[in-house]
Amino acid sequence: MKTIYAFVLLLLIPCIGIKSQVPISVSLDSLKIGKSVLPGLTVNIPEANYEKTLKAWIKILETGTKSKVVTENNEMSIFGAKTKDVVPTTVNVYSKLIARDSSLQLSASFELGKDKYIDKTAGETDFDKAKNFLKQFAKDQYVAVAQDRVDIEAKKLKDLQKELSSLEKEKARLQKSIQSNNSSIITEKSNIDVQNNEVKTVSASIIDNNSQLNSMDAGPAKEERQKYIKDLEKRQKKALSAIESSQNRINKSNSEIDQANRDIATNELMQEKAREQIAQQEAVVQKFTNKLTTIKSY
User: Fold this and answer.
1) Based on the domain organization, do 173 and 289 belong to the same domain?
2) Residue 84 in 3-state DSSP?
3) What is the tens place of the pLDDT at every residue in 214-251?
4) CA-CA distance, 203 to 199, in Å (whole number)?
5) How far is CA 27 from the centre of its chain?
6) Residues 6+ apart with CB under 8 A from 5
7) Would residue 13 count as lying in a domain?
8) What is the pTM of this model?
């Protein structure tokens, strides 16, 4: 019964639509820090979580340096950052992370020296490296989002497969129970036949001995015969009791067989629904996996 309840709960899990992957684009932009407007670059990060992305951005800026990112009015700055993927020397980085409807916008300005920023005038190599740096960061965050979703959907699929396995095991248990009860019925019917023969034999003996008893004179022989008749009556009672017990066990086995057959019918219906759900969930996992593969190719 637990299996059925758990499976029903899985059926109630809503199927959330799959968003198509969005290309990551980096563009020239200006960045306002305080009262200054600095040349910079902007990258979109689709579907990313703001807090996780902010934490990752700060971490990458602070890696390899003792400098710390300073945040004021949602404006971040770090002096002496070691972003070797951009330039081999230290660089000052000014940045902002803004949440949009379904994406984040990261804007950054890289200061090589006083009033010297990475833009197209600073040299194509440094500019391309800065673009690639931002694009790779955005891609890493987007991949993490997609991977998390693949993991979530794969977990749902695994849970469905576990429920199907539990249903299959439950059906096998029910079938085994039916076989066991059928064997028990055969055994008890055989016992009833044996006990009926016992009753028939003993009853005939009781009648015969009672007839003989009536013609006997009082004495030790008659007392012995009376004792023997009592023993026969005990045997008769024991056989009748055994017949009743066997019949009760047969009735119980038949009842359990009927219940097991009803449970098997329900179980098979649940298995059919489980396989449908698994097929649907496999398609969902495949779509998210394909999305992840596409994002990794950016």
Assistant:
1) yes
2) coil
3) 888 888 888 888 999 999 999 999 999 999 999 999 99
4) 6
5) 42
6) none
7) no
8) 0.77
